[in-house]
Amino acid sequence: MKFGVDALVELLKAAGEPTRLRLLALLSAGDLTVTDLTDILGQSQPRISRHLKLLTEAGLVDRYQEGAWAYFRLKQDGDAAALANALLGATDVNDAVLVRDGERLAAVKRNRAERAQEYFNLNASEWDELRRLHVDDGAVEAKLLELIGSDTVDALLDLGTGTGRILQLLQNSYRRATGIDASRDMLAVARANLDKAGVVKASVRHGDILNLPLDGNEYDIVIIHQVLHFLVQPEMALAEASRMLKPGGRLIIIDLAPHALEYLREEHAHVRLGFSHQTMAEWLTKYGLTVEKSVDLPPESSATKGLTVTIWLARQGANSSATPINGSADQTGSR
């Protein structure tokens, strides 16, 4: 972390004001809106907005739009972010002003969690019904962790993040992460869950999986978890995912194997009744990805007419051959 004199002075000017330093401390704990910050600091909205504008222009804070709302968070990477973290590291956590800000922040997050829980409760029965059709989520998550491995990557992207579960599960696997979802209600749930889990290095944003509001070639891992079967053109989502990956980056898809449960179309908005290994491999190849592994996880009881979950691991620009797996046993051929 090195700065020229003029650049360093400008950064210190941006951060070196009591309200702006308090804002940096608050934004280090997650994404907040101007309204959130106004409630916490007890200052007018124009004043808070002006301070945020200065911090954003200095590169200390990121801003992104979500409908009518603008969210802010402490910048996660780069020299300016390192300086901000150094300044915050030098503050006294027992400072009365910062303690009071923290208490008000906790109240804002509690209100956020209560609103999110209301939405979650309204939809919980539908999600529970779908979970009963396939293998336990724990088995899927364990296999996902195994495929990713123990190495920590710089950046991870979760497309269709939903409740933010993948961002929580993999928090030890990345230095920073972004979750994208088209539902603002689900984003509220995800933010509440990340707050509760204390995950501050991940943020969630509103966006269209077919037209992502992100620059390409930024992520080491992209995950698409149980999303593609809702899409009319799932291959377009794969094209966007491929665009997001750094050279050699990995794409992990978790979705359903082909099945015949037609009622899922009408009752649960499923557009596709699963995906075969062959179809997935053809799509991925089209967008410059090579399947390295595919894992089938069948329902726990063969007596029930359930759904098999498949996990595909593909790499950008790789030349590896596919290794289909059924549970823990190898299999050959495609469905």
The percentage helix is 40-55%
Radius of gyration: 22 Å
**Strand order in the largest sheet:** 6-5-4-7-8-10-9-11-12
The string of secondary-structure elements, in order, is: HHEHHEEHHHEHEHEEHEHHEEEE
- Strand segment tally: 12
- Structural category: alpha/beta
**Principal-axis shape:** globular
Please count the helical segments: 12
Poorly predicted residue ranges = 319-335
Which range does the strand content fall in? 15-25%
Nearest-integer average pLDDT: 87
- Terminal Cα separation, in Å? 52 Å
State the major sheet. 9 strands, mixed
Question: Short summary of the structure?
Answer:
With 335 residues, the chain is α/β, with parallel strands linked by helices.
Task: Please tell me about this protein's structure.
This protein is an alpha/beta fold and 335 residues long. The protein has 12 helices and 12 strands. Strands 6-5-4-7-8-10-9-11-12 form a 9-stranded mixed β-sheet, with helices on both faces. Helix 3 packs across helix 6 (96-131). The chain is globular.
Task: Indicate the topology.
Blueprint: H1 5-15, H2 18-27, E1 32-33, H3 34-41, H4 45-57, E2 61-66, E3 69-74, H5 79-89, H6 96-131, H7 137-148, E4 153-159, H8 165-169, E5 174-181, H9 184-197, E6 202-206, E7 219-225, H10 234-244, E8 245-256, H11 263-268, H12 277-286, E9 289-297, E10 309-316, E11 324-326, E12 329-330
Parallel strand pairs: 4-5, 4-7, 5-6, 7-8, 9-11
Antiparallel strand pairs: 1-3, 2-3, 8-10, 9-10, 11-12
